[in-house]
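hiii so my PI (J.) wants the whole complex modelled not just the main chain, which honestly fair. so below is everything: two entries, each one labled with what it is. i double checked the lines twice but i was tired so who knows lol
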Amino acid sequence: MRFSPKKFFVSNSFTRKLHKGYLYVFLLPSLGFIVVFFLIPVILTFLIGLTKMDYSFRWDWIGLGNYIYILRDKWAYKILGNTLFYVFTTLAFFNVGMALFISIATTHINDKIGSIFRSIWLLPRITPSTVYALLWLWAARGEANSLFNWLTSIFGLHPIDWKLTYPWLLVILVNGFVGTSFGMIIFTAALKSIPEDYIRAAKVDGASTLQIIRYVELPLIKWPLLFVTAYQTLSLLTSYEYILLVTDGGPGLYTTEVWALYSYHLAFAQYGGIVKFGYGAALATILVIIGLIMSVIYWKVFRFRELMVEPKIEV
Amino acid sequence: MRRGQLNLISIALLIIGLIIGGVIGYLLAPRPAPPEEGKLQALMQENEELRAKVNELLQKLKPGEIKVTVWTIGPDPPSEYRLKNFFIAADMLNSWLKMLGANVTIKVEGEFYVRPVEWGEYKNKFYLAYKAGEAPDIYLTGHEDIGFLAENGYIIPLDDYLEEYWDVIYYDIFPTLWDAVKYKGKIWAVPQDTEARPMYFRKDVLRALGWSEEEINELPKKIQSGEFTLYDLLKLAQEAKDAGLVERGVLHRVKEGYDYFQFYLGFGGKLWNPETGKMVFVKSAWEKTLKWFYDAVYEYNVISPNQFSGDWDKDFHLPFTQGKALFLSGGTWHKGEWIQKGLLTEDEFYDNIGYALHPAGEPSMKPVTLSHPLVYTITGLAKDRGVADVAFLLITLVTDPHINSYHSVQSAHLAILRSQVSDTRYMQDQFLHDVAYMLDYTTFIPNHPKWGDYSRIVYNILRAVETGDLGPEEAYNTLLDEIQSTLGDAVEILP
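here's the output for the full assembly
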């Protein structure tokens, strides 16, 4: 009788367990990374959030004192509102909206030209963040010869200081131009993997380009769309780098301060060197909790499990 | 190098220091009548004994190198002698050690941080490095940090050293500077420099406005007497701007700092109560200060609403040095920076730039300036490493009037020693001579562990006033509320 490996493994309960054991062994490296770079920092952040630690690095436990202080901190509510506004506006107009538009537009034109356009949109991503922020700051300066004012002067508008007058517009543009590229790559890959037959079939049925996009392409890239939305929401929630470089939360009183930046300011960026690790950590812990809740929502409501099981764009 | 050996070197160096100090003291002291024969012989005998003791100690030394690390910051580049002076001091020490035949050398390693590293980042680096065991032996910082550093064991008290070396040089430091480095009855640092914060003005713009040379030269005196107030300053700036002579009326620093408190002091504010050790919030002074800032931006249009988020060069140095702004609230060190950066020559500076105190808020009030003495501390790690004695010896050497003048002249900081005022190098600097009187009008930043919170709250509110986010009344209420809720008992609220 010939030996059948398949039969052997399936029939033998011991080896089945062994097989399962191998899976866990293969998962160990990534599990190790998660523990070291996520779980332990989260636990430490949570514990520091229960103290009033500063540069004395003493663990002076104050229980939920920092969280009670957050509830009483009137700026926390303004900053929470800022964060939601920042996340959803950047997401809607750029990280998903603009990314989708560019992907669709560049896949419906000559492939070479489309690739060039997409490459240009990758430039902000590969530019060092400080240089990138500085370029925007120069462009938005109040002098008549700055880029923004030169462009608006074509329409007869007076020069303005864009950072002072429209700080949110600047913050969203700066973040959006960087954030667009991620979604653009995912969507373009998804669009390009749609079998050509479907498009042809739609054309045979007399569908216009807009109808093809609306009724063929968009439904087929639903899952990448959900993935980018979920991933970018969480990413934007914790991002503050460009806001720090462009407005530093200003120009007014917490005008563009977002939750992650507030946490950073309190924990690390005090001119006088007086820092509040404890309070900053409590603020960061809340971000982690929000992130976890949103992950669960995305997992359950958007049925991410199904996304993981089989690739939805391949039929 | 073993710790025992280090102690041995330290003792030897202390004795050398005492001998040098004694010799200097002897040479500088007024010549009394020649000592009696017996006394002279006793003195020479004592000297010989000390020499013999030094030789004995040196012979026990094993060859080696003692490394002392020093961290300093500008952030303005001309203040580089805060570190460089330690190299000079180490060279001096090494030449003495060589002369004595000791096969030991002192090596100084260090950092001098300049922009974009600002104070906050510099301090962050220190605290984190300390916990990692990599902090320096000598740490330059602002005097206001002494309380926090001392409370948490980052630095060691220097009273014993100072007592021993007092007559070498420390007796010569201005007494008010010692007040700035005391905490809970002990001295924790040695003053490195101090400064005044002048209100600079463009003489050429005033000339163009029709002012005579005499009137221009009288302006600092009018400010000193309280005749010319902060609102007169706004009116004059507006006049210059309306006449098209300048693009901006008044410039102030573009990032967080302590300079803004001068306007509050000008309106009769106080920073702290030395009796209770608490910080002070004078309601009427803050109310007037916030109104003044609001008026400056929105009534007189002489301060840009975006000044607080501007660029150091484009919105501070260049508009003033190019004559596009009339007033600049700066520091003495800015003169050094402009000269070193080539923005102005010495001649251009004296021809076109004037300097005065920050004016009083109202005629009945006093003009002001603000000082923020920087200080050298010795860290707890230096003690653990067994180099605290050598570190102190190096600090003693850089506290020499001539050596300190390398720093003060290049960076336009003020003298910390009485004899420095008559130092050949220092005396030649007209500017330092001219602004010396300002120290009579100065206030030190409070040496309070929560001072950073006070400063940050004020900065946030002032920024909101200038950008139009808050009106003066709303800003005042917010400021009071924030100060009370954040600082609680640490601050006294006065009417």
